[in-house]
Design goal:
This protein is of the alpha/beta class and 331 residues long. The strands form three sheets. Strands 9-4-1-10-11 form a five-stranded parallel sheet, with helices on both faces. The two termini are 14 Å apart.
């Protein structure tokens, strides 16, 4: 029997204008933004939709310089959309706003998963969190991750046409470096201390990797260097109401299903400093019967991964209203 999986992108997919068309056209999508802004205590709409933001809250010297550059009545370029503590709730909201329109159209999933931050979208889609609670948790998650970022951290994507002993090479490299993401065949990401990441990347190139691409990120995410953020998040989640998912939901940490609320708390705390097993999660869902994957959110990163993981399943994406119409026609 055919089964549908909803999948949600992670940090890095954000862009100014994300979900604006759904906000304008769909009352349910607009309601998600309104709920999210109330939960966050600031305008998620402004961060998602505006090219510039008011200079209020920017350090005085910096603000003065940017006001002169902008010449726009005290407005500055919107850099918050790429600042972890704002990126995460903004991207979560944008994806959930699209989800609201998808559900209104009558499209339902049998299972769900999300890449890193996207796991919170998957859990919300499954009824584990309300939109308000998800936004509040993710606001704190972004702050914890931003504050835990050590000086000198880095991440590098390793691209290869053949399997490499990536774990063994990282373990044998001086300094802190480990695998952060198993994205798809031929693409993993390593994370840790910059010098150690560079040394491991050089060894992997010698071992046959075709490219090593440094990522423009604010820290060594999904590495043990973020364990402090994981501990704070676990403490926050200890008091959070967590409902049993109504769908099969995959954990990034285990690449297996998670349904027990206590296990969800534990795994979400571990997630920020553990590898994201995305390829393995997708493979599990395919084994569980998923033959149609719908990426919900900005960009097509997960759809592109899907084409490398398994070309026999159907990979669709919904970022704009016309995408939703195309998916409705395809189903």
């Amino acid at each position: 029997m055919s089964k549908i999986a909803f999948v949600f992108p992670g940090q890095g997919a954000q862009r100014v204008g994300m979900s604006r068309e759904f906000y304008d056209l769909c009352p349910e999508s607009r309601a998600v933004f309104e709920t999210a802004s109330a939960a966050a205590g600031y305008s998620i709409e402004e961060i998602c939709f505006s090219e510039t933001l008011p200079a209020d809250g920017v350090a005085e010297a910096e603000a003065d310089g940017k006001r002169e550059q902008a010449g726009d009545g005290g407005r500055v370029p919107n850099t918050k959309i790429n600042q972890t503590r704002y990126t995460q709730p903004a991207l979560l909201t944008a994806s959930l706003a699209i989800l609201a329109a998808v559900q209104k159209a009558g499209i339902q999933a049998d299972m769900a998963a999300g890449l890193s931050l996207g796991e919170y979208c998957a859990l919300t889609a499954a009824g584990t969190f309300s939109v308000s609670d998800a936004v509040k948790i993710v606001c704190q998650r972004g702050i914890y991750m931003e504050e835990a970022v050590p000086v000198g951290g880095a991440m590098t994507a390793i691209l290869s046409r053949r399997p490499l002993p990536i774990e063994e090479i990282c373990a044998a490299t001086e300094g802190q470096v480990s695998v952060a993401n198993y994205n798809c065949p031929g693409q993993q990401v390593i994370s840790g201390e910059k010098d150690a990441v560079d040394r491991a990347a050089a060894k992997l190139l010698e071992a046959g990797a075709s490219r090593a691409v440094p990522l423009v990120v604010s820290g060594p995410f999904h590495s043990p260097m973020l364990s402090g953020a994981g501990e704070k998040l676990a403490a926050l989640l200890a008091d959070q109401e967590i409902r049993k998912p109504e769908l099969l939901v995959l954990s990034n940490v285990t690449a297996g299903p998670v349904s027990d609320p206590e296990e969800i708390r534990t795994l979400l705390g571990r997630q920020v400093c553990s590898p994201v097993r995305w390829q393995q999660s997708v493979e599990y869902m395919i084994e569980a019967g998923a033959d149609t994957f719908i990426e919900i959110g900005p960009g097509t990163t997960l759809t592109n991964f899907m084409k490398k993981i398994n070309k026999t399943v159907r990979a669709l994406h919904i970022e704009k209203p016309e995408d939703l119409e195309a998916v409705q026609s395809a189903l």
